[in-house]
Amino acid sequence: MDPSLANNPELLQFLNQEKERAMVNEMVAKLTSVCWDKCITSSPGSKFSSSETSCLTHCAQRYMDMSMIIMKRFQSQ
């Protein structure tokens, strides 16, 4: 990166925000894929069954909890 660009706080803030946005998008895509494969066992209809809804909710919560644990562990190093 050009040194003059590296000293631009607005550019650095923008790049960090974009990096965070990309990480969130990647996490959502991974969560969607993992939880869908785990919880949707048949062809989906017009709405999810109660067991699918419950499974998706719990799966997403566990995924978010684990992501937070991992992020905290990296931040503490």
UniProtKB/TrEMBL annotation:
Transport among keywords: yes
Residue ranges that the Swiss-Prot or TrEMBL entry lists as coiled coil: none
Alphabetical keyword list: Chaperone, Disulfide bond, Membrane, Mitochondrion, Mitochondrion inner membrane, Protein transport, Translocation, Transport
Topological relation to the membrane, as annotated: Peripheral membrane protein
Location of the Tim10-like domain: 13-76
Residues spanning the membrane: none
One protein family per Pfam: zf-Tim10_DDP
InterPro entries: Tim10-like, Tim10-like_dom_sf
Cellular compartments annotated: Mitochondrion inner membrane
Subunit structure: Heterohexamer.
Comment block on domains: The twin CX3C motif contains 4 conserved Cys residues that form 2 disulfide bonds in the mitochondrial intermembrane space.
Protein function: Mitochondrial intermembrane chaperone that participates in the import and insertion of some multi-pass transmembrane proteins into the mitochondrial inner membrane. Also required for the transfer of beta-barrel precursors from the TOM complex to the sorting and assembly machinery (SAM complex) of the outer membrane. Acts as a chaperone-like protein that protects the hydrophobic precursors from aggregation and guide them through the mitochondrial intermembrane space.
Stated family: Belongs to the small Tim family.
Descriptive protein name: Mitochondrial import inner membrane translocase subunit
Organism, as annotated: Camelina sativa
Gene name of this polypeptide: LOC104725581
